[in-house]
Each structure stands twice: as structure tokens, then as C-alpha cells.
Amino acid sequence: MNLRSWTLRKWVIAVFGVIGVGLVPWTIWLSTSLKPDHVTQHWNLAWSGFDLALAFAFLATAYSAWRKSPWVGTSAAATGTLLVTDAWFDIVLESQSADVRNAVVLAVFAELPIAAVCFWIAYRTEHFLSLLLEEPLHLAPTAERAAQSDLVGVLEIPPDREPAGEPRDPNSTA
């Protein structure tokens, strides 16, 4: 197996796949070894930093939409992901029943619906861009090459930094 001839797409598949699989036993170990309570001196910094990142994601989405940028979908997806994460931690980290109830209400009636709108924006943006390109915007299936107009075609650029030409013969050594 010649790793130097791998495209970025192959590296992403291999590395992200290994990390994803590796996180499963790590998560199981954490869930059984961590204490159920933890006191920290930087609780306010953690939450204010997270909320600042969330504010930045909302502003980036608004700015991208205002500029009619194709980044609006990516910004909206990041914003939605942060909202789901915020809802999760708000609910899980509350210890008083009234606080848990308030966190659930906020999640169900604000954070998760807004996240759903963000994911819808991301989906619609991808769909719109694919119509402009007359090609679906996704990684090429295994054994197929990405289309020339595919925005993710950059993942098919080989390590020699030259654009991919004709598909290589997988049995060749060069």
C-alpha cells in the first residue's frame, strides 16, 4: 500500500474512520471512570466562551447570507451543531429539578427548533449549489471519480498537487 499516492479523500476516510471507531471505547471508558460530579474554577469561562462561539456562528451565518456567500450553508450547519450541543449540556449539567425543567423547555422550544432551521438552511444551500453546478455535491462513491465541477473535487487532488487527470489503474505501480 503506497500511502504517498493517497488522495486527501482517502486520508480523510482512513483517519476520520479510525478516530470515530477509537472514540467508542474511549467514551465507554470515560463513562465508567469519571466521577459524576466535578468542581472547576473556570465554569464561567467555559460557558461564556461557548456562548461567544455560538454568537459568532450566528453572526457568520447572517453575514454569509447577507453577502450571498456559498458559506452560508457551512455557517448554518456549524450554528445548528453548536445549538444542539448547547441544549445537550444545558440539560445534562443541571442538577436542580426546576433548572432541568427550564433547560428542557429552552431546548424543545428554542434551541432545537432553531438548530433544525439551521440544518434546513445548510441542506437548501447545498441543494441550490448542486442545481447551479447540475451535479450533486457529495463525495464520489467508491470506485467513481468526482465530477470536474464538484466542489468537493479538491479531495481528489493527489499528493503531487497536480489536478487528477484520468482515473489511475489501481493495479499500476506508478
Summary tags:
174 residues, 0% strand, flat, single chain, mainly alpha, 4 helices
Q: Residue-averaged pLDDT, rounded?
A: 82
Order of helices and strands: HHHH
Helix content: 55-70%
Report, as a whole number of angstroms, the end-to-end distance. 12 Å
Share of β-strand residues:
under 5%
Global geometry: flat
Q: Number of helical segments? A: 4
Which structural class best describes the helix and strand composition?
mainly alpha
How many DSSP E strands? 0
Question: Uncertain runs with pLDDT below 50, 5 residues or more?
Answer: 148-157
- Rg (C-alpha, Å): 21 Å
**Main beta sheet:** none
Your description of this structure?
Helix 2 (43-66) packs antiparallel against helix 3 (72-93) and helix 3 (72-93) packs antiparallel against helix 4. The chain is built from 4 helices and no strands. Mean pLDDT is 82; it is low at 148-157. The protein has helices spanning 8-33, 43-66, 72-93, 97-133. With 174 residues, the chain is an all-alpha fold.
